[in-house]
## 1
Amino acid sequence: MKQVPSGRISGLIYRFADFLADWRGFVATFMALMLGVGIGAALQFNEGFMFAFNIFLSVAAIVISGVILVAGARSEAALHVKLDYLIEHSPATNKIVGLEHLDAREIEEERKRVEREAAEAVEDAMEGAGLTQR
């Protein structure tokens, strides 16, 4: 049995995701749905057709969700690399690089800490400019 390289499969998934994200993908999906409804109406929505159409819609939904998840993971990974690069080459601290590997509670704690530091920096800047409220 011949193996298909994973790069080729990934390429197909990404092209399919790009197609679905485009207006042509929306139109194709909508037309397939309308075609199914039209055929169903012609067959008076008999049990056999409805069973087959429901199976088709279920499989299509599962495949499309998987494609969206894979494409989203690629996009998210690319954003992490870009942000890590920007952080690395900026005067900001590098201690948050890799934050995405923490659990949700730890990320929320870090978000609150950063917000507190930002609020304190704004207050200090306002005091320095003589803009504090008394």
Note: The helical segments are 6-21, 23-42, 47-88, 104-128.
## 2
Amino acid sequence: MDLNADLGEGFGIWRLGDDEALLDLVTSANVACGFHAGDPSTMRRVCAAAAERGVAIGAQVGYRDLAGFGRRHIAYDFAELRDETLYQLGALDAFCRAYRSRVRYLKPHGALYHAAACDEMQATALVAAIGDHDRDLPVLCPPGSVLAQLAQGAGIRVVAEGFADRNYLPNGQLVPRTSPDALVTDPHEVARRAVRMATERVVVAVDGSAIPCPVESVCLHGDSPGAVAAAELVRAALIDAGVTPAPFG
């Protein structure tokens, strides 16, 4: 089971989360590409640290919205979103190449992640950008989403993702971040949820129902409180359950 985290989300002198500590624990790093967060120096630093540890590097592409951390929906024109996504892929890939690595996958961030899960135009723009950059580049996204369906139709590999530190609605969607119960904050509960995703392919929704969660990768948010402690527990719990943390390839 792949274990991924959102990293490189600082900007300038401001740091968000402990990238280096998380890179010792995860198997894939979703690196911000300078639009919702991050900057060239941060991208270089995280790519260098990830390459040194053998952690797979993914492009965490987002809306051009530093002030809103990419969590505000933007009604993009198709061509603009395609081109801004391609721009972010190319920028991160340049830093990867400096350390004899490469971008291994694409994952949308924040509002773009949620929009592409249901908005055909925005999902199509992401698929087009992948096609322009590298058609062999997988996309990390919710199972069964519009983005997953369109990517599969275009011959692009889809890697289904689940969130151990986010609560789910009974319909399989994430609880909106505006809700007070959006996050799972108990590290032990986060670990239990990760193990159940990996071994049973289910997650418990906020109403107590067990819903299907057929995923290949489990995400931990690097900006969540106690992210490192949660990642330590998740990794240990997966190994205890006989699940080897490894990149999805």
Note: The longest helix spans residues 78-98.
## 3
Amino acid sequence: MLRIFALAAALVAGGPAFAVQPDEILDDPALEARAREISKDLRCLVCRNENIDESNADLARDLRLLVRERLVAGDSDTETVDFIVDRYGEYVLLNPRPGGSNWLLWAAGPVMLLVAGAVGYGYLRGRARASETAEARLTREEEERLQNLLKD
């Protein structure tokens, strides 16, 4: 029973590794490690939210092979990624670069936090400045009626 559990755990844990086929793996372990590291940051264009190492799509396989071809040709990691980005666009990157038109994406979070803080601060300041006279008070007739209702 323990062996079956161990086998099932190994299959589940190694699931994403099945996407890389044995014929894709490079003979040089250093180049293969570089290829795997680069592949972690490249998006599968078919699966969208998976990296190419985890995807079984044909296009992901083509990208994995292209990465390995570029590394065998002597390209650096940066040159390999730049080649793929030039070919497929910046969408292929799982983590977009903070430059060019992406600065808006990178700045949107902090800007929205500052705007929300300013709006919250303004609301609280305005609320604190509100005078008590602005609050609705009961008229004499309403107070008498309330007292009568409370007595009953």
Note: The radius of gyration is 31 Å.
## 4
Amino acid sequence: MPNDLIDGDPLIAQNFFLEIDGSVVTILASVSGLDIEMEVASTQQVGKDGKSQTIKTLAGRNKQGDLTLTRMAPPDATADKLWQWFHEIRSKGILQSDRTNNRKNGSIVLYDSTHVEVARFNFTNGWPSKIATDQLSVDSNDPVKENVTLTIESLERIK
């Protein structure tokens, strides 16, 4: 009798991309921060004989951290969409009254080896708050990588 819990194949995390507003912006080497979490609210009361007791735990507010994207540094930052977006915010800021100007919705999309989409994490109101370039060394032949921090307001796995 087959086990229904392990009938399917696992996700393989090797083919994934960043989409912004429906179009692929960059190929990624790694992603961290795909955490979907709620705060836990605990209620405590003093019980018999004055002993503190945890009575219940409840779901609190949704928590959202940043996404950290690692990619190969582009040869020309002036032609790169992420760098253009970052410079736009860095030079002009984000208007308090305009929540759609520089904040964008996007997705981290995972594909299988046949290039079929198998998972999707959608984020809302994201913007690049930091781009960090790897340490450079004359002793290295490795490609230069960048870590891009996307500050986001919500994250949801929809597939």
Note: The helical segments are 81-92.
